[in-house]
Design brief:
Chain lengths: ~270, ~250
């Protein structure tokens, strides 16, 4: 009962904190407006015009299908890379030999620019969903891998000893201690890799010409429709924000209640 | 009567360096035994071996008890779990149902006089003494008939230490568990145990033992103090008790 009251209070505080977020966005809009007044309509359309363009896009049901298509690709790629990265990260964290072998691979994978992967994926998969998903997988799974492996290696071994003293086998120690500790490192990595997934999805769509928001951006560029291009950018950012604040943040808050308890009062409010 | 715990010929080494060797000791049922010795003589290693945390290189451990609990030097609480969930953790390992876990954890908390109002707090919100209370409750929640204590009160101040010692004395009398209590504080040992075992300076066997008169908890403070003074000044067994070898502290 108290847990639900606690959750309600947390949600209330979270929504209230949106005011400060709104203030920051208003500041960005003000700068944008200034840029518009200096450079004119063609180079940088006014924020309100862009919002209107976005409104026009969103009032068209076909545009929703396009936004959903991109979001679906991004979330698919994100899910695959989260699973692959987390599984490999766990393996590497618990086995130093795997870690030694995996480190240089991660460096190589992160070192190759995503754009190069898009070109390769286009050659391998042609113009299909596979191109987008594979590019996301390669671009964002190393982030999750590093986060999880880091989590496993920084676990508190004295807690492992404690659990062993109370008769916990390796599986119980993994499920009750290891995974719980890794979760704290996993969520920041997931938030970053989700952002990467959306960005890479749009980029891959633009280059591979497979429709979606990226495809619409390519068309806007061809028509020199700057307001339309910015409108689509807003749509893709909105899709990312909706997923991050609707799914990733609530789950993380549930896992990190104890961290909030550790904060001094002034930081909490 | 078989012993609650007996170690025979125990030896262990880390990276080729022998820490303890040729240790034989036995703890009877319901008996509280202190294991003392200078810093770095392998007391901690020995109690970890006895509690099945470390696998010994040599020798055998025979356990005649049903179930053990353990209290460590630092509380070793799960930072992400509330006090209640921390106390219930050993029950979670053994697969006890959630409602049953909460009920038993509340009972264990009451046994160590931990305020029920604080059970929903996280370890970061508790003082050092309260954290150690949670750790003791966690050891008692499994209804053990043997408890291992690894220098549990070293980090606490004198008054708190005394209260915790009383807690252990009361709990051991009420639940009648046997215990192996590692400490380097002779006063502490003389207050709460039946028998003191002194480990050899280099961890080569048990140097000797002294049986204390009377029951723990019924001894006069004055008598305890004098007994410890006589140990320290007149008894050759305790000559090296305050020697420190920092290199060997592990």
């Amino acid at each position: 009962m108290t847990a639900w009251a606690d959750r309600l209070g947390r949600t209330g505080r979270f929504l209230w904190s949106a005011w400060s977020g709104l203030a920051a966005l208003s500041l960005l809009a003000a700068l944008w407006q200034y840029g518009h007044e200096v450079y004119g309509d063609f180079i940088l359309p006014a924020p309100l015009d862009t919002l209107r363009a976005m409104g026009a896009i969103l009032s068209d049901p076909a545009a929703w299908d396009i936004a959903v298509l991109t979001s679906r690709r991004a979330v698919e790629g994100f899910a695959v890379s989260a699973l692959a990265g987390a599984a490999l990260g766990l393996a590497a964290g618990y086995s130093p030999a795997t870690m030694r072998a995996a480190r240089p691979l991660v460096t190589v994978l992160l070192g190759v620019p995503p754009i190069a992967w898009i070109v390769l994926a286009m050659i391998w998969f042609g113009s299909s969903d596979g191109t987008v998903v594979v590019t996301i997988l390669i671009a964002s799974s190393p982030l999750v891998f590093v986060g999880v492996a880091e989590g496993v290696t920084t676990r508190d071994r004295s807690l492992d000893d404690m659990a062993r003293a109370f008769g916990a086998g390796p599986v119980k120690r993994l499920t009750t201690l290891g995974l719980r500790h890794v979760a704290a490192h996993l969520f920041p990595a997931l938030a970053i890799s989700l952002g990467t997934a959306f960005k890479v999805a749009v980029m891959a769509e633009l280059l591979a010409n497979v429709g979606g928001i990226g495809g619409e951006l390519a068309r806007a560029r061809a028509n020199l429709d700057v307001a339309g291009a910015l409108g689509w950018v807003l749509v893709s950012v909105a899709a990312l924000i909706a997923f991050e604040y609707g799914v990733v943040h609530p789950v993380r808050a549930e896992f990190e209640r104890w961290r909030v308890a550790a904060l001094p009062w002034g930081v909490k409010r | 009567m078989t012993a609650a715990l007996s170690l025979s010929g125990i030896g262990h080494s880390y990276f080729g360096r022998t820490v303890v060797d040729r240790i034989d000791l036995a703890v009877g049922r319901g008996e509280v035994v202190a294991l003392v010795g200078p810093s770095g003589c392998g007391k901690s290693t020995l109690v970890h071996i006895a509690a099945n945390v470390i696998e010994p290189r040599r020798g055998t451990v025979a356990r005649g008890y049903r179930r053990h609990g353990m209290v460590f030097q630092s509380p070793r609480l799960l930072p992400w779990a509330t006090a209640l969930d921390n106390i219930a953790y050993p029950l979670r390992i053994t697969g006890v149902r959630r409602a049953e876990r909460a009920r038993k954890a509340r009972e264990a908390a009451a046994r160590v006089a931990f305020d029920a109002a604080d059970l929903g707090k996280y370890p970061v919100e508790l003082s050092g003494g309260m954290q150690q209370r949670v750790a003791i409750a966690r050891a008692l929640v499994v209804e053990p008939d043997f408890v291992f204590f690894d220098e549990p009160f070293t980090a606490l101040d004198a008054a708190l230490k005394r209260r915790m010692q009383d807690l252990v004395i009361d709990a051991s009398r009420a639940a009648h568990f046997a215990a192996l209590f590692v400490t380097h504080d002779l006063m502490e040992a003389a207050r709460i145990v039946h028998r003191i075992l002194v480990l050899d300076v280099a961890g080569r066997g048990v140097a000797g033992e002294r049986v204390l008169e009377g029951e723990p908890g019924e001894r006069e403070d004055r008598a305890v103090f004098e007994r410890v003074q006589s140990f320290l000044h007149d008894d050759p067994l305790f000559r090296h008790i305050h020697d420190v070898d920092e290199r060997k502290v592990a």
